[in-house]
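Project standup — Tuesday

K.O.: blocked on the structure for the chain from last sprint. Re-posting the sequence here as requested.
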Amino acid sequence: MNQPHRHEPLIKLDMVNLHFGQNHVLQNISTELHKGCITTIIGPNGAGKTTLVRVILGLLKPDSGTIWKENNLRIGYMPQKLQVDKTFPLTVERFLKTAQNCNQEQMQTALNDVGASLLLKQSIHHLSGGEMQRILLARALLRDPHLLVLDEPVQGVDINGQLELYNLISRIRDERGCGVLMISHDLHLVMASTDHVVCINHHVCCSGHPEHVTNDPSFTELFGIKGSEQLAVYSHHHNHKHDEQGNVIPEKEHASSSSHKGCC
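H.V.: unblocked you, prediction finished:
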């Protein structure tokens, strides 16, 4: 995975709050999403991850705070899973057409991009878990998005398929230069597949590069992971150094630089 570079923001959230009745679901959430940067939201069940994404998508309006979005921002959304009545005949081709007014060439290009070029005429009911996730990703790409929003993108996929999908997401980011926002419960793989982590439990507990976050006391307390156990959560081999925000420090600056503002 490429290391994050300086890129302009796509979305900025500043002190966003949202209540459901008496339940303060989002508490003073401030974060940014950047072009070319993979950002992953992690947190326990009920922490407000899905609610935060719905706010970012514009499906929910916060009670207070501000949300800035780049002009004419296009977002491609990949849901966690899709339930379709098995008695309803639906091919991949017809399913893709429900997302965007697209032609055959555009659909085939999107399928090629996700490694599913032979599935256009297949019934979605006959797809494996990994194939279905690729089709959902292709559907999101048909919008030619500036930002991809992926809700549990490896849901229902075996370990080898998960690795392939995370590598695919990184490649799409590299080739298209889009930003990526993921929600994930899977700490073991996602921490090696992202540039920036936002750990929430209704509020932002900690954020930054995965190496920084996994050593944050808030992360340790929230997930009950201590000391050497963190090595099982995040493994990333490299020959460079990061500052605490996760930005790569050029080799000549290793000895003198401890802060470098990057994209995330």
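K.O.: great, moving the ticket to review. Confidence is low (pLDDT under 50) at residues 1-5, 230-248, 252-262. The radius of gyration is 19 Å.
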